Amino acid sequence: METVNLFGAQRGRAAQAAAWAMEKERFSTQEMANALAVSTPTAITLLRRLEGHGLVQPCGEFSSTGGRKPRAWSACPGARYVVGADITLRHVSLVAVDLSGQVTRTQTRTLAFTRTPAYFRALAAFISELCAELPRQSVLGVGLSIPGIIGSGQDLVLRSHALSIQGLRADEFEQYLGLPHDKRRKRRLPCRGLGRRLSAGRGLSLPEQQRGQRGAHRPQAVSGAQPA
What we know:
Elements (H helix, E strand, L loop, with lengths): L12 H9 L5 E2 H8 L3 H13 L3 E6 L9 E5 L5 E7 L3 E8 L4 E8 L6 H16 L6 E8 L2 E2 L5 E5 L4 E5 L1 H7 L5 E3 L43
Parallel strand pairs: 4-7, 7-11
Antiparallel strand pairs: 1-3, 2-3, 4-5, 5-6, 8-9, 9-10
């Protein structure tokens, strides 16, 4: 399963800039600088990095009362996606969410949970089918939602009454999915989507205060990706 690694080892500012940009229809360099409390040259550098990853694009100019007109930028939320898998006893539901938090694809399949290689292979094949519908190298990673009590290291399902298992380790998924995964305790959500259940150890982290805007749920982070 192929994923894309954003921004390399440098983290923090660029991910913050990307999350902020996804909330704006159009913005200027100075608006980004003011919002992120950085200098204008730093904002220019951030925009160049985001543009290089296809996350923002120039979209004309703003009007000016004098002097040079400031360039306008807009976000490209469909440039990257997060895939989430909601695992239950008898079914698996998948969602693909773009960077603005919009659910773009959903699929549900009957797949009875068993702690066997055959199940993990079937799960991986189902996720790969959904990923194949998305643009090549656009998937940041995959998050799993599993009903149960998760260990403090978030790499172990201590116990799940719903699935009748205990001691399920993340690496039982990893060897078939090809990604590191983080599993969180399940919680009930509105039918809009699984966005808040998407979780993972390393990835594009959208600030808590941005959730709930635009009426969409947002993933906290994404496995298999390392944004700046």
